[in-house]
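Fold this complex.
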Amino acid sequence: MKIHRIYAMVIRYWYYLKHSLDRMSDMFYWPTVDLLLWGLTSRFVQSQSTDVPNIILVIISGILFWIIVWRGQYEITVNFLEELWNKNLVNLFVSPLKIREWVVSVFIIGIIKMVLSLGFASTLAFFLYKTNIFSYGLYLIPFAASLILTGWAVGLLIAGIIMRYGTRLQTLAWTAIMMISPFSAVYYPISILPEWAQTVAKLVPSSYIFENGRSLIFKQTVNHEELLMSFLLNFIYLSLALIFFKQSFEKAKQQGLISIY
Amino acid sequence: MSPQNVLEVSSLSKIFKSKSKSFTAVDNVSFGLKKGEILGLLGPNGAGKTTTIQMLLGILTPTSGSIKYFGQNLEEHRESILEQVNFSSTYTHLPWRLTVMETLKYTSYLYNIKDRAKRIQRIVDLFRLYPLVNQEIASLSAGQLTRLNIAKSFINYPKVLLLDEPTASLDPETADYIRKFILNERKEFEVSILFTSHNMPEVEEVCDRVIFINQGKIVAEDKPENLPKIIKFSKLELVMVDGLKRTIELCHHQKLNHQIKKRAIEIEIEEKNIAQLLNKLAKKGIRYDQISIKKPDLEDFFLEVVRHKS
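Structure:
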């Protein structure tokens, strides 16, 4: 892997961001809408009942943490689609760029944009609801790391599917991540899910993070075994997703799809 | 591998397979490209030229055969080879929201150009891109985009350049400028170029050698000036004053292919028989006021190969 080629791709996506009002707005617009909508709803619920302490913190943390998962996935699939829409894959892969260098570059641009988006949303949450995401302390680091890994795994899986079957499946770039959100238990405990869904939730790495986030708020404890399980599952899924994406790329090369895309 | 060859292609084949059928796009193709040589890869649409180029760039996996650059296998040494190779096609798109300068910049990082700023400035000057540097690609005309594509392909001082119809959408003056630029680069830096074009006079002007490919196979290979010599017939054009009907009858009698073009008749005839034919026309009192003889050129050879094969 060569740093200059990874840097080339990072600046390529950065330039693109600079010129794209739509991409710029989705970094700030949707988090703002979510924070207003769900923040005000939870404030209303809390004003009606004192039985649900910290509901605002739970909901706002859910929104902010979900931004991390979504950013991780979105940057991979949408940047990949961007190359397909521009028919630019051929320009990239007639150069010495390797597919793993491209993957690392979208990981990096994903982290940069996640930091910007999350920074903006946490500041907004602090001013609107006096909610401080940094109250999670150092646990914020493993939580964020695990969540972005989940996003990357889903992103690579979707990019691999689009590479194999074409842009007719591009809607997955916006919808696929929502499939794991009910099982991630972003805003509610896993225990309220039906039994079969609880089993599925155990296979979703982000569910352990959201569950332990709430545990930290309500009980000031974190289950380290669950945290470890989250990383273990992420490691397995990300490895499989990387293999699938690489295989899809090789398949595209065999079928002559790189120049068509 | 010949020591002079910077690119050696051996028994290259590509078969596309689907559930119900298979299609051989490139069939056992072998050729070499010498250092500083400009090799034309010609053939009709669908002949297998682009498929061959895609395999030479490593973006299409061959079914069989080998591709070696500088004596090294492309599959095994992709990274070091592609640092010294580049490609441009009129039909390649670029990221449409980036500016010209941004495109050149990120490309220069892909190839790790050491004197980046100087090289980009040189490329901008050479390809007359200065007025366009801050323009988004989406706003460029087809010709400007082609110019940028070619400019981009020179950014890494390539030793081997694959140019797929590089001048197809350029105006005649710019196309001429680009051709002269390519010839100069070859002369100055011994760049080896694989060149495809449907513009036969351009191929005759630029290429040292040409390969004709049809239905995935190489059907001819020689210098551009030698290939038309294979065709026996020249074209004799007479602008008639009187006796067009009798001339047609004579052509039928002598089994000569001919075409009527308003007042003129174009007859395909062996050069050695022209004098004899003109003599017969004179004896029959047939009069014409203009005569021209067109020797076969590369375009005639192209048509001959395609018609013969189909």
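Chain B has two domains: 5-84+158-224, 229-309.
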